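Propose amino acids for all 182 sites.
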C-alpha cells in the first residue's frame, strides 16, 4: 500500500508537470517558427542585396560603355575626315583645300577630346611647373624658369595629368652656364 501511495503521488506530480511541458512545447514551437521566418526574411534580403549589387555594377559598366561609344563615334567622324583629306591629296587637288580640311579635322578632334574631359595644358609664358611640364632644354632667352616654347602639348584628363607638356625653359645664364639639355 505504501508503495502504491508513492506511485500515486509520483503519478500526480508527473501529471502536474504535463501542462507546463505542453505550454513550453508550444512556446518552443512558436520560437522555432519565428526563427524560421526571420531566417527566410534574411535570405530574401541577402538575395535582394546581391541582385542590387549586380544591377549597380551592370549599370556602371553600361554607362562606361555608352560614354566610350560616344567618344568612338566622334573619333570615327575625325577618321572619316582624314580619309577624305587624303583622298583629295591623292587626286592632286589644291594644297589650300587640303590645309583647310586638315584644319577642320584638327578642330573636330579637339572638340571630341574636350567633350571626353581632356584639356590642353597652357604652357608658353607660364612659370615652369615640373608637375605639368617636361623640360628638354634651357635657353638663354626668356625669364628665369619660364616656358619659352612648347615642343609637344600636354593634357589633363578630368583633373589628372594625362601627359606633361614637353617644353623649352628660359634660364638666366651665369658664368659657366651654357645651353644644356636636362
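Proposal:
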Amino acid at each position: 500500500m505504501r508503495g502504491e501511495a508513492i506511485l500515486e503521488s509520483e503519478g500526480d506530480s508527473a501529471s502536474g508537470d504535463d501542462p507546463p511541458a505542453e505550454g513550453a512545447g508550444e512556446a518552443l514551437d512558436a520560437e522555432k517558427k519565428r526563427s524560421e521566418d526571420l531566417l527566410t526574411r534574411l535570405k530574401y534580403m541577402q538575395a535582394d542585396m546581391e541582385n542590387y549589387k549586380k544591377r549597380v555594377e551592370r549599370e556602371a559598366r553600361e554607362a562606361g560603355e555608352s560614354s566610350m561609344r560616344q567618344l568612338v563615334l566622334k573619333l570615327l567622324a575625325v577618321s572619316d575626315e582624314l580619309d577624305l583629306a587624303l583622298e583629295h591629296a591623292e587626286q592632286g587637288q589644291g594644297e589650300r583645300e587640303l590645309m583647310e580640311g586638315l584644319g577642320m579635322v584638327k578642330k573636330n578632334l579637339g572638340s571630341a577630346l574636350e567633350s571626353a574631359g581632356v584639356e590642353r595644358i597652357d604652357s608658353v609664358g607660364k612659370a615652369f611647373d615640373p608637375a605639368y611640364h617636361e623640360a628638354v632644354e634651357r635657353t638663354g632667352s626668356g625669364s628665369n624658369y619660364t616656358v619659352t616654347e612648347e615642343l609637344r602639348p600636354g593634357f589633363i584628363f578630368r583633373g589628372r595629368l594625362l601627359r606633361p607638356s614637353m617644353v623649352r625653359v628660359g634660364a638666366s645664364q651665369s658664368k659657366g652656364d651654357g645651353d644644356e639639355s636636362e
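The first helix runs from residue 2 to 90. The longest strand covers residues 133-139.
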